[in-house]
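Same chain as my last thread, 167 residues:
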Amino acid sequence: MITLIDCQNNRRDARIAFGWRNDPKTVAASYVALPKTWDSFWLEYNAGYFEDPDFSPVFVIESGEHAGFVRFERANLPCFDNETIVEVMINIAPRRRGEGIGTETLIALKRRMRDKGVFALTADIRAENKASQKAFEHAGFSLLNERTEYVAKTRENCRILCYLCKL
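reply #2:
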């Protein structure tokens, strides 16, 4: 059974999340599929992840240890004007992948976000990231749409699948 705990805006918590960020599977699944430096990650974590106090990042705790990290951003979907939509970005610790922790985390997040008055959760997933697609689908998310985006930093066109779960 997992527990979600709020991350703190400090270097200790940032280092835990950063420790998983440059794992090869995480890099490949990221929107910008490049490793990050500690300095750039710390700036992003410190300045960006805590901008919205209603949706600060959380750690996933399982069997007393950190097993994942989830951050959130408010999202806008034209089909749901005037509704609170939150995008979910999840990273499960490399040694804990394949245990169902991602799906269990998403189910717990649905309850947590419903309690905050969120209308729906969304996630943008690279088309080649089959593990994430499976986790989101098992947690009750459905494919909303698909698009191709050009990512300038990596000079690539990537297929992005947008998943949605109404709460």
